[in-house]
Design brief:
membrane, transmembrane helix, transmembrane, 355 residues, mainly alpha, 2 strands, globular
C-alpha cells in the first residue's frame, strides 16, 4: 500500500513537472528556465569534477585542482550559488506569472541574465583560484567583484518586485493554497535578500579582531583568515540566517501542489500552518545570528524551537501525502466496496498523472 502510494505520487510529480517545463519554455519567463538549466548542468559538472579531484580519479587532474570545499577559493560557492539560484528561479517563474504589476518578460530577462553574470563571475574566480567575495586586490578582481554585486542587486530587486507584485496586484484565479505559498514564501525570500545585503555591508565594515571568532573564521575561510571575517559574527555562521528563509517558497509551493492532488484536504490551511513554522524558523535564525550564537549548536530552548518548526513542516507534508490512505480507510469504514469512492478518486487521479 505504501509503495503503491509512493509510486503514485512520483508519477504525479513527474507528469506535472514535464508539463510545467513545457509550459515554462513557451512563457515570458523562459529566460529563467534557460539559465536554470545552465546552472544545473554547471552544478553537476563541477560537483563531479570536485569529487573526482578529491579521489584523484582519472581526468580530474589537471582539469580540477584539488582544493577545499569551504574557503574563499573553494568549490562550494560556484556549486551552491548555481543550484540555489536555479531553485529560486522556479519560484520567481511562478511569482511573475501570478502578478500583474511588473512586465513579466522584462523582469524575467533582467533577473535571469544578471544572475547568470553573478554566478558566472563566481565560477570564473573559482577557476582562477582567487576569492569572488570582497576581493578588490587587483583592478581585474575589483571590477569583477563590482559586476557581481550589480548582478546580485538586480536579482534582489527582482525578488522584491515579485513579492510586491503578487501582494498588490495578483493575477486572477490563483488557487488558494498556491496564493498562500507565494505570499509567505516571497516575503521570506526578500528577508533572505536583505540578510545577504546586510552580510555584504558587514563584510566591508571595519571591525576589531575578536579572539573568540578566530577558530570559526579559520574554519569558514579554510585557514585563510582569522577574526575579523565576514563569514562569522561571534559564534554565529552568518550565511545560515540567509539560507533559512531562502528556499521556503519552493517548499511551500511543493506542499501547495500536493494539496491540489488530494480531495478533502484544506490546502490553504495546511500551507499556512507550514508557513508559520517557516517564519518562526527564519526568525530564530536571525535572532541567534544577531546574538552571535551558532545555530548548529543551539541552546536547549533554541533547539526545541528549531525542532518544533521542522517537525511542523514535516507533519504538514505527511498529512497531505498520506491523505489518499485516509480516504481509502474512510471508505472501507463506511463498508462501501473498494471500487467506490477510493476507486473513482484513484482512477481519476491516475488518469491525470499518467496523461
Amino acid at each position: 500500500m505504501v509503495l503503491a502510494l509512493l509510486s503514485w505520487w512520483l508519477r504525479c510529480l513527474y507528469h506535472d513537472a514535464v508539463l510545467g517545463l513545457r509550459r515554462w519554455a513557451r512563457e515570458p519567463e523562459w529566460p529563467l528556465l534557460a539559465v536554470a538549466v545552465a546552472f544545473t548542468a554547471s552544478f553537476l559538472f563541477h560537483w563531479l569534477g570536485y569529487r573526482l579531484a578529491i579521489q584523484r580519479v582519472g581526468w580530474s587532474a589537471p582539469l580540477f585542482a584539488l582544493t577545499e570545499w569551504e574557503g574563499r577559493t573553494g568549490w562550494r560557492k560556484p556549486l551552491v550559488f548555481g543550484i540555489s539560484n536555479a531553485m529560486v528561479f522556479v519560484s520567481l517563474r511562478e511569482a511573475f506569472a501570478a502578478q500583474q504589476l511588473a512586465p513579466r518578460r522584462l523582469a524575467s530577462h533582467l533577473v535571469a541574465w544578471s544572475t547568470a553574470l553573478e554566478v558566472g563571475i563566481i565560477t570564473l574566480q573559482a577557476w582562477r583560484g582567487v576569492g569572488s567575495h570582497f576581493n578588490t586586490s587587483t583592478t581585474l578582481d575589483a571590477s569583477l567583484y563590482g559586476a557581481k554585486l550589480c548582478g546580485a542587486a538586480l536579482l534582489g530587486l527582482g525578488c522584491f518586485v515579485a513579492a510586491a507584485g503578487f501582494t498588490l496586484w495578483p493575477a486572477p484565479a490563483v488557487p488558494a493554497a498556491k496564493a498562500v505559498a507565494l505570499r509567505h514564501g516571497l516575503w521570506l525570500l526578500c528577508i533572505a535578500v536583505a540578510v545577504g545585503v546586510g552580510q555584504a555591508i558587514y563584510g566591508h565594515h571595519l571591525r576589531e579582531a575578536r579572539p573568540e571568532e578566530d577558530a570559526s573564521c579559520l574554519v569558514a575561510s579554510a585557514g585563510v583568515a582569522a577574526s575579523p571575517c565576514y563569514e562569522i559574527h561571534g559564534q554565529a555562521i552568518v550565511k545560515l540566517a540567509h539560507f533559512l528563509p531562502l528556499h521556503v517558497t519552493e517548499v511551500l509551493l511543493l506542499l501547495a501542489w500536493a494539496t491540489a492532488h488530494v480531495d478533502g484536504v484544506l490546502g490553504a490551511r495546511v500551507v499556512r500552518t507550514a508557513a508559520v513554522a517557516c517564519w518562526s524558523l527564519a526568525g530564530l535564525g536571525l535572532w541567534l545570528t544577531a546574538r552571535g550564537e551558532n545555530l548548529k549548536s543551539p541552546s536547549l530552548g533554541a533547539g526545541l524551537i528549531l525542532f518544533a518548526c521542522l517537525a511542523t513542516v514535516l507533519a504538514a507534508f505527511v498529512y497531505v501525502l498520506v491523505a489518499p490512505l485516509r480516504i481509502r480507510i474512510g471508505t472501507q469504514a463506511e463498508k462501501r466496496p473498494d471500487f467506490g469512492r477510493w476507486g473513482v478518486w484513484a482512477a481519476n487521479r491516475a488518469a491525470a498523472c499518467n496523461g
